[in-house]
Amino acid sequence: MRLVCVNGLRFRHLRLAFLAIFAVFLLWKWDKGSLYSPGILRPEPLVLNRNTSMEEDPPIIDPLVQSVTEVGKEGISAPPPLTIVHNSEDVADNAGTAPPQKKECDYRNGEWVSDNHRPLYSGPRCKRWLSESWNCRLTQRTDFAYEKFRWQPEGCDMPAFQAAQFLTRMQDKTIAYVGDSLGRQMFQSMMCMLAASGKHDSDVEDVGSKYGMAQTHRAKRPTRSVGSAYRFRSTNTTVLYYWSSTLCDLEPLRRSNPAAGYAMHLDRPPSFLKKNLHRLHVLVLNTGHHWNRGKLKANKWEMYASGAPNNNREIASMWKAKNFTIHGVIKWLDAQLPRYPHLKVFYRSLSPRHFFNGEWNTGGTCNNKDPLTKGNRVFQNHSEDADSEGAAKGTRIKLLDITALSRLRDEGHISKYSIRATPGVQDCLHWCLPGVPDTWNEILAAQL
């Protein structure tokens, strides 16, 4: 009986010893990683809540603005997928690599916010550079609430514009605006932002003759001339504007008689760019509203392609001819950039019109004086100016996308207050200055 007990005890000891040895073996194998099974230990994928509640935008009736809000809600409801790191050892091994680059700010998304520090300059103190009809403080307009807003981008801050700092950054550089009258508004806005404080007024000299843009004695302000150029002596910074409403090269049909009309070469960039591109450091282009039959007829422009009157039906319509020209100019500039690495080119998207109940010559109005009645926010992943966005895509030319954010500012137009406006005709295309075009320049400055 004693022998049985002893044997049983020994057997229990042996079994415990065997279990201990087996446990040590398992721990050793685990440490070696041979028991790791990605299919078993990989974490479950995260499930994103696509019904995150957001504050609803105010009701929108105007179809011009409705698309901004609808696209915004779609963008909010479908956030990008998260990235899951499955192997912590890889992260530790790559500790010495550079951190991921900060995502570039998407200035087209954000909101208009009230700012009592606005406007950035005084219209009456900017008479030297600002056209009378756009200087709304000199008109009979009495409401100026439109001056008190700034653009706040989504998820990033836009640095406050400071004239002295900007001129220092642009030392020995030339900034050129080439486009239509809305490009001229942007140019005049920049001149006022830089010089209207009075600190730099005496520092500015007219250098238009160096670019073939000498003013006539009768032209008091840069309103109808082919262009203007001014240099800030202290920093040798030049800001210029060249009028090219369609970004086409214009050539007299008969050199002896320019009044006979002009060939509008759809496949040629403006000759001004060919002659002066090497002198520029920042170039801002725009076109759009001159592409209509009325303008072509009034200016006696005839569309040409390959050096002859255009007979290509593919680009016979106005919008196709416009897109053909925009794509051509951007493609040409993109090909030039390797030769001029100092040059940064921006294509500014279309500035929206706000004619209601008719066109400019059929009783169209923009009488609203209350800011942001259609909402104050833009959130979308594409431009409202799809043609311009498509032309710039895949090139080194940046799209200065101002269409959607400007769409919300219908109260900021000249309206019926233009000094030279014809009775019964309102200007719902151009903007009061100071005003919305100042924001376009702030976004431009932030991207430089």
UniProtKB/TrEMBL annotation:
It is found in: Golgi apparatus membrane. Keywords: Disulfide bond, Glycoprotein, Golgi apparatus, Membrane, Signal-anchor, Transferase, Transmembrane, Transmembrane helix. It is a single-pass type II membrane protein. GO terms for molecular function: xylan O-acetyltransferase activity. Residues 103-157 form the Trichome birefringence-like N-terminal domain. InterPro entries: TBL, TBL_C, TBL_N. GO terms for cellular component: Golgi membrane. The chain crosses the membrane at residues 12-30. Residues 158-446 form the Trichome birefringence-like C-terminal domain. Belongs to the PC-esterase family. TBL subfamily. This is Trichome birefringence-like N-terminal domain-containing protein. The gene is LOC125508163.
